[in-house]
Amino acid sequence: MFTIIRVKYRLTAMQDIIIQSLSSKVIKQLLLSKVGRESPIYALIGDYSPLAKAPEKPIKMSMIYRGERALWNEGWGDPLILRRGTEYAFHITFIDSPKNAARLGVDNGNVLRELMELEGNFRIYGYGEVAVSLIGIEVIASSELGSGESWSSVKLEFPTPVLLQYPKPPRLRLRESVNALYPLPQLMIWNAAWRWSLYSDDRLPPSLPQYAPLELRESDHGIRAVTVNVGVKERGFSGWIIYRLTSKSKERAANYIKLLRFASLTGIGRSTTLGLGQVRLWPLNEARR
């Protein structure tokens, strides 16, 4: 069992500030300016930390939001600007699991304390000033995810780019990433189940991704391919999709719901620590019977 903790913040720019194409990098600046090199947060997100290349980290920085819109672009066109006096929001999610210490050597308690202390005035990019205040905390136990829920359909929205990788057969020895340009159900469930296994000892059926294309059936979508710069330019997708949940197995249906709820809190695909792969979820229609 593990706990997901989401800390929510308000950010106000004191002047117009041009920012990078991924606004989550502003949040990274805020965190690194607040903590020292001995901090567990530095260990998780510092560029020169031994954990910098860890494939899955329990801390997830969102993009900065203005209303419902996540601030990011594909690296061309008009720059992103935080406007003077405008209020924005962001959140940082931490997955508090006993397995973090064994896998990454992370002290969960210190991470939470440091996230609670992320308040005050900060200077970013060497010239811009922003004010940050904590506005709320949400705590969800893994045992609550999908508990008692029953859906006939679900709508997923991807407000930030998703880099959903195909699994790499070892014999091919591929070094580059190969990303899907569409939220294929088997890849969505495979990725969520793999990440779940890093935090929980609860075993999920290994056949679940094989059933997903037949039991999470696409009924409508507004998906588009996008480009995102994560050190190199990569292609992914954003938009929305509706799945119909048709499984006659109550166990598999419950596992799909649990994993989609997990993804809605912690992201899907690669680089979720930097705010990619964020998911919004809305159950649709009447409950399944």
Describe the structure.
With 289 residues, the chain is an alpha+beta fold. Helix 5 (185-199) runs antiparallel to helix 6 (208-215) and helix 5 packs across helix 7. The protein has two domains: 3-142, Elongation Factor Tu (Ef-tu), domain 3, CATH 2.40.30.310; 147-284, 2-Layer Sandwich (Alpha-Beta Plaits), CATH 3.30.70. It has helices at 24-34, 40-45, 99-104, 108-116, 185-199, 208-215, 250-266, and strands at residues 3-13, 17-19, 59-61, 65-66, 69-70, 80-82, 87-96, 120-124, 128-141, 153-162, 164-165, 179-180, 216-221, 224-229, 233-245, 280-284. The strands form five sheets. The chain has a five-stranded antiparallel sheet with strand order 3-7-1-9-8. Strands 10, 13, 14, 15 and 16 form a five-stranded antiparallel sheet that branches. It is 25% helix and 34% strand. The mean pLDDT is 93. The protein is globular, with a radius of gyration of 19 Å.
List keywords for this structure.
289 residues, alpha+beta, Elongation Factor Tu (Ef-tu), domain 3, Alpha-Beta Plaits, 2 domains, 5-stranded antiparallel beta sheet
Number of strands: 16
Provide the low-confidence segments as ranges.
none
Helix proportion range: 10-25%
Shape: globular
Cα-atom radius of gyration: 19 Å
Structural class category:
alpha+beta
Oligomer: single chain
CATH T-level fold name of the largest domain: Elongation Factor Tu (Ef-tu), domain 3
How would you characterize the largest beta sheet? 5 strands, antiparallel
Q: Span from first to last CA?
A: 28 Å
